[in-house]
Amino acid sequence: MKSAIIGLGVIANLHVDAIKDAGGQIVAVCDIDVDKAKAFVLKHNLSARIYEDYKILIDSEVLDVVHVCTPHYLHADMSVYALEKNVNVLCEKPICIDRLDFKRILLAEKNSKAQLGVCFQNRYKNTNKFVCDLIKNQTKVSAVAIVAWNRGESYYASGEWRGKKATEGGAALINQAIHTLDLMLSFCGLPVKVQAIEDNFHLQGVIDVEDVITFKIETEKGGFIMTATTASVSDMPVLIQIRTPDYKIVMDGNDVYVNGEKVLIEQDDGYAIKPCYGLGHYPLVQDFYDCITQSKKYALDASEGIKVIDAVLSIYESAEKNKNL
Ligand SMILES: NC(=O)c1ccc[n+]([C@@H]2O[C@H](COP(=O)([O-])OP(=O)(O)OC[C@H]3O[C@@H](n4cnc5c(N)ncnc54)[C@H](O)[C@@H]3O)[C@@H](O)[C@H]2O)c1
Question: 267-285: b or e for each residue (b if 16 or more CB lie within 10 Å)?
Fold first, then answer.
C-alpha cells in the first residue's frame, strides 16, 4: 500500500505508526508548514516526498490511500478531492462541520472507485465492542455519560484553528467527546429528539465555543443524557451507566461492571500518545487497508461519519436556540 498523510500535527504521528504496522509505505506527506513537514519526515525516518499543497500531492503521486489529519474545516474538501481522483481516503473525525457538506461527500463517495473511511477508532476498543454486543438485542436502553477533561489556554494556543466555530466547529463536543457520543448512539440508537444547553466556564475570551455542554437525546429504544466538558479540574476516565431490561452496566474508563460484577475484558486496551486516543488507530487502519486490498466495503464510511456529525450539529443547534430563549 502506498500511503500519504496530509496535516502533520499531533495525530499524524499515530497514523505513521499505524500505517507502518499495517504494512503501508508512506511515500508522500503534506503540510502548509514546510519546516514542520521536513522535521516530521526526519523524526519518523521516512523517505517521503514533501508537498505544501494537498491537491498537487494527490495529482502527482500514485497512491492507494491518503490520510487526512488536518483541522476540521478542511476535511470535507480534502476527502471529496481525493475521492474524485479515485484515491482511498481515511479522514480523521469529524468528516465535516457543516450540513451543507453531507450531500457532496455522499455523492463523491458514490461516484468514486475509491473508499472513504472515518476515524472513530474507539469502535475497535475491546470494552466498547463487548458492551455493544451485550446489549444489541435489548429492547429498551437508557444511559448517562460524562466526559470530563481539561483543555486550557495552552492547548488552544497550539493551533490557530482550535476553539473557533468557523474552523473547529465547536470544542468539547465536536472534538473531545465525539467518540463517546458515537458510542452512546450505538448503544441507544439514533436521535428522535435533542435538547441541549452549553456554556463557557473557564475560557471566556480564549475560545468562541463551548467548554461545557449537556444534552438529552431521545431515541426509539429510550435515550441518554450526556455532559461533555473541557473545563474539568483534571482529565477523568469517561464514565457511562446503562440500564436495559436485563443489564445494569457501569463503564469506568476500561473497567466494565455488569449487574454488579466486574467483567474481565481479556486484554487491557492501553494507549498510544495520550490515554484518550487509545490504541484503536492500529486495528482501524489495518481494517481499512484490508478492505481496500480485498475489495470489501469498509463499514465506517461516509454515512456512518455523517450520522455522528448530524447528531453533533443537532445538539449545537438546540443549545444555540436555548441560549436565545
Ligand atoms: N481520533 C482521535 O482520537 C484524534 C485525536 C487527536 C486529533 N484528532 C483529529 O485529527 C485532526 C488533526 O488534529 P491535530 O491535533 O493533529 O491538529 P494539529 O493542529 O496538531 O495538526 C494539524 C496540521 O495540519 C496542518 N495543516 C493546516 N492546514 C493545512 C492544509 N491546508 N494543508 C495541509 N496541512 C495543513 C497544520 O499545519 C498542522 O500541522 C483533527 O481532525 C482532530 O480532531 C483525532
Answer: eebeeeeeebbbbbbbbbb
Does ligand 1 lie within 6 Å of residue 176's CB atom? no
pTM for the full predicted model:
0.97
Atom of ligand 1 lying closest to residue 11 CA: 16
* pLDDT tens column, 101-144: 999 999 999 999 999 999 999 999 999 999 999 999 999 999 99
How many helices (H) does the chain have, and how many strands (E)?
10, 14
Walk me through the domains of the chain, giving residue ranges and CATH numbers. Answer: 2-121+281-301 (3.40.50.720), 126-259 (3.30.360.10)
d(CA 304, CA 294): 21
Place of cell 469506568: 252
Say if ligand 1 is within 6 A of residue 291 CB.
no
The Cα angle at residue 241 between residues 237 and 245, in degrees rounded to 5: 155
CA 161 / ligand 1 centre spacing (Å) = 9
